[in-house]
Hints:
Helix content is 50%, strand content 20%. It is α+β, with helices and mostly antiparallel strands and 578 residues long. The strands form four sheets. Strands 1, 2, 3, 4, 5 and 6 form a six-stranded antiparallel β-sheet that branches. It is rod-shaped and about 195 Å long. The N and C termini lie far apart (207 Å). Mean pLDDT is 77; it is low at 1-11 and 114-129.
Amino acid sequence: MSDSSGNMGIFGNLSEIKLNELRKIIIGLDTEDLKRLALFVNDPEAFSEEISELLPNSIKIMLDKGKVSYTELIPLVETTLKDSIKRNPYTLSDILFPVMLPAIRKAVAEDIRNMVNSLNTTLENGFSPKRIGWRFKAMFSGMSYAEMVLSQAYIYRVKQVFLIHKETGLLLNSISDNEDSVTKDEDMVSSMLSAIKDFVQDSFSVDDNNELNTIQVGKFNIWIEQGPGAILAAIVDGDAPSGYRTILKETIEKIHLKQAYDLEKFDGVIKVFDKTKPYLQSCIISEQKVKKKKKPLILIILLIILFGLGGYWAYISIDRSIRISNLASALNAEPGILITDDNTHKGKTMFEGLRDPLAADTYVLTNKMNVDSTEVGYELKPYISLEESMILKRAYSILKPPSTVSLYLKNGILYASGEVKEDWIAFANNNYQLITGITGFDIISLNILTSIEKVERVCLAIEQFYFVFKYNVFELSKQQKVKFESLINEVNNVLDFNFAQDSVPVIIVTAHTSHEGNSEANEKIAFDRAQQFINLMIEAGIPMEVLVPKADFIEDLEAEFPVRSVSFKVFYSKPEDL
């Protein structure tokens, strides 16, 4: 007892400082160290926090010294992660949220980019009303025209962005564009959004991962992007592209990465979230409609007119040039015309050269080539052409052979062939020397006719003509007019209607008909037809005294001339009998 109290007395006289020093000498720990050690033993959380700073370095040292391998650690880490995920899968997702989502999004961005671009193009190129339609739309929507024009000036605009604490629904920060804020009470908006989110989550059978991301309020769309600790809401006027969702995701990720502790330990003080303003500001974007430049309509019309006039002038110039060129070629190809030069004077093409008097008329050729006589002029000097065609033309002009005689040129010799009377041969022999370009005249091939032979041949040639007419009609067709001219030429060239001679040719014009029907009427019609044909011959210069009308009935089908035809017969009579 005395020993015990003695000992106590000894320690009791020691001061607390001395005792602490004695304790540190004995066990190596002072009072503070013992309290800290007691805290680690009694508070596992504090011990875990303390050892968390040492454990990574310890594991690294153990790996370096070979006391433990990666193969041994991997199963332990995998098992720990599996147990953690089974207990609370959201813990790991909240930890990985700011880091893994950007990587995941980049991995799938390339695959969906084409689809997003296609959708954006479809939305952006939709039909939009014109300005005149905007006024009507403004009248019925209650908006002013200025507001309507402003709304039409953008494809979309982000009016306001809210950062809301996910658990409490309190507004942490907000930002709007330069104009007046869309919302009247920002705190009320944040509360409303939180309430709607909770309502949807509680009222519908949806998975916790299926979160509300879009709300439409009138003409505004509210885009919502949620993170583990906060919600980002953007009020969009118009139809934003799907790419804007990426901007919201990146913004909420950055906020969680920078202020994860503030979100987790949020105690109602929102001042610390002022640092999120730059992130929210990046969400205030808009896309303005590309203003189509007005086309200068008057200038376009003037250009069209100028191009039209220029094109027309070019066409006229080219067409005229082609026609003049074709005319020049035709003139040079024409016998008896030689073009030596051409020039333009006061817009008129002047041709210079030589022209045979018997050559074709240049202005007739000009019209034939579709060139106006006001476009060209001629300064052609006369000359005698020695081209064969021009020599023959000059021979016909000087010798005036009858239609039964043909002339041709060979090696400078003029040859005559055909049937002719003696008096023309004498005339030709006296005048062929007047023809420039020939050195001789050959008449060996001519057949000289007597008067009787001539009459017989002439009568036979004329009597080969006949004309057929339609029923009860007397009118020469185009082909019959050519044939009629040949008949008149034949009559004028071979028949001599000189009433002073012993005999004069008489032409009987016979109109053929039949007894079918009314014979008397048919005969009268035929006689009238013969008389009408005689009138045509008289107009052509045949003396009326030598023309005799006659009506003739055809008795059988093998008659020489058809019904309703007109034929001719020639005989000679004394002038006093006419």
